[in-house]
Amino acid sequence: MAEANGMKNLKSRKLYLQVYDEIKSYIEKNHLMPGDKLPSEMKMCEMLGVSRNVLREAIKSLEITGTVCSTPGVGIVIQEFNTDFFLSNLIYSISDEDQLHKEIEELRRVLELGFAKDAYESITPESLESLTKEAKTMESLFVQIKQSRSSVYGARFAEADASFHKILFQAVDNHLLKSIIEFFWACDRYYKVKTTHSNMELTVEKHLRICNAIKARDYQKYYDAMQFHFNVGYFKR
């Protein structure tokens, strides 16, 4: 039951989550670094006053977030923070798919428009050629999809779309940005996001607009094309 000040009674919270928080706090207070070990399971059970099953459930949660790695014969070792590992595991922790897609698309819009100038300035003739190739691949696949309605072409269309955006930002000096973009497309693959024929046709047009603006070396036209990409029909799947 909630207290008068709105704080939750900790007794109502699952015990393994309280243990999870205590271990995180222990790591911070003792300034443990990657490669350092936590106390043994037996010792931590004594320190926390919990059963081994509860402790192991908390450790499993810490492993899922990439905080620790538990290895028989070695112990529980603190891990280096890894954005790729964290983001890939985040996919499995979100149950509301519709909300996930909406939030991802909002984040994509903010990030890709925010880094639009960096991407534009880093594009080389070789990367422009690759971008154009992917856009033309989408155009060709769309024609085949209309004719055959094969799911194989749909999957290849999504792959070309993902490849286009990865190429667009590959030369930007920001590893976290590229990890997040990879995460966006991993979500699409994991949840098998479907698009309609009308959206595919619009997607082809959007990517060709971006390529044409880059070829013209017109930044304003390029930025307008990026805005068009995210603002026109973007939330309609």
Provide the descriptors you would attach to this structure in a database record.
mainly alpha, 3% strand, disordered N terminus, Four Helix Bundle (Hemerythrin (Met), subunit A), 2 strands, Arc Repressor Mutant, subunit A, DNA binding, WH-like_DNA-bd_sf, 237 residues, two-stranded antiparallel ribbon, DNA-binding, elongated
Overview of the structural elements:
The protein has 237 residues and is mostly helical. The chain folds into two domains: 13-76, Arc Repressor Mutant, subunit A, CATH 1.10.10.10; 95-229, Four Helix Bundle (Hemerythrin (Met), subunit A) (Up-down Bundle). It is 68% helix and 3% strand. It contains eleven helices and two strands; from the N terminus they run H-H-H-E-E-H-H-H-H-H-H-H-H. The longest helix is centred in the middle third of the chain and has 24 residues, at 125-148. This is GntR family transcriptional regulator. One of its GO terms (molecular function) is DNA-binding transcription factor activity.
